[in-house]
Specification:
Largest sheet: 5 strands, mixed
Number of helices: 5
Number of strands: 9
Strand content: 15-25%
Structural class: alpha+beta
Distance between the termini: 84 Å
Shape: elongated
Length: 309
């Protein structure tokens, strides 16, 4: 055992703390060598200059790269529009991570939970500034070059489903509200001929409209007449006049004036029983066109309605 070890062992705890503190103070500032943290003025000047040049070059490189990148970005439209070629159909009240919707028609809290998004939709519609809004119901599809068309949407178009605040969910006649996702620049087209119109919608299809139809996925639900569907509201579906969506980044302050049209379908359940439902949109060019994130299915949504007593 060395002399220093004996010396350290003989020190009290506070003496050891004092020695360590004195050593730290001397490291931070040594008056004998006139150094700070072991470095003199010349050493600090060299290392300071090195890091100043290094980070200046990094900042300059980042600024140049950002400037070059911004030259490739348009504020009028997305840089890439091929990720999704056609809009998907989705239900407003069905969460993205959930396919089964369970509720109790007799339980007010359960009904309020389901209809909260629908009442929020009505609230958003009421808050839209309708100054200079256009009636797009009978207008043809717009042009990308003409800019964004801001259209009126009246809840009166929703027929029997215009029934806030519960929209039929407090009974066995709930209303499903459906809309298409926004795809920049996508414009719907009519079927080339009446023969191309699917049989399922031939009795409701009208040119210049995107038809929407809901039906039970299981044959057993159709066979035992557990469910009936009303005509969609509006009956013809979504007018072409609401398309295309071409709101650029420079117009984001006008986004609140843009209402995404909806279609409502009332579903009448004859008894308390789970049912598997599919809704699909129909128009001449809604089949996916090999976008990077397109599925191999047409624009449709599927979900389970599971009422409880």
């Amino acid at each position: 055992m060395g002399y220093k070890e004996l010396e350290d062992e003989d020190l009290t705890f506070m003496e050891k703390v004092q020695n360590n503190w004195n050593g730290f103070r001397k490291f931070m500032w040594n008056p004998e060598d006139r150094t700070v943290m072991g470095r003199g003025k010349k050493s600090w000047a060299k290392i300071g200059l090195f890091y100043f040049v290094l980070y200046s070059l990094l900042a300059g490189f980042w600024a140049v790269m950002l400037t070059i990148f911004l030259q490739t970005v348009s504020y009028d439209s997305p840089k890439w529009t091929a990720y999704v070629s056609t809009p998907a159909l989705h239900s407003i009240i069905i969460p993205n991570d959930q396919l089964r919707l369970t509720w109790q028609p007799s339980d007010e809290d359960s009904v309020k939970r389901i209809t909260k998004p629908l009442n929020k939709l009505y609230e958003d519609l009421e808050n839209i500034d309708d100054t200079d809004l256009v009636d797009c119901t009978n207008l043809p599809v717009g042009s990308i070059d003409d800019g964004q068309r801001f259209c009126k949407f009246s809840v009166e178009m929703l027929g029997e489903c215009n029934n806030p605040p519960y929209f039929g969910w407090d009974t066995l006649k709930p209303c499903i509200f459906i809309r298409l996702n926004r795809v920049f620049g996508w414009t719907p087209e009519n079927y080339e001929s009446l023969e191309d119109v699917p049989d399922r919608i031939k009795n409701v299809y009208m040119d210049n409209n995107i038809a929407v139809n809901c039906f039970p996925r299981r044959e057993s639900d159709s066979a035992n007449s557990n469910v009936n569907f009303t005509m969609p509201f509006p009956n013809a579906g979504i007018p072409f006049g609401f398309f295309p969506y071409v709101l650029g980044a420079y117009q984001m302050d006008q986004r609140d004036r843009l209402f995404q049209p909806v279609v409502a379908v009332q579903i009448s359940l004859n008894r308390i029983e789970e049912i598997n439902i599919e809704c699909q949109a129909y128009t001449g060019n809604i089949t996916p066109r090999q976008g990077l994130f397109d599925t191999d299915q047409e624009s449709r949504t599927r979900f389970y309605l599971d009422p409880r007593e």
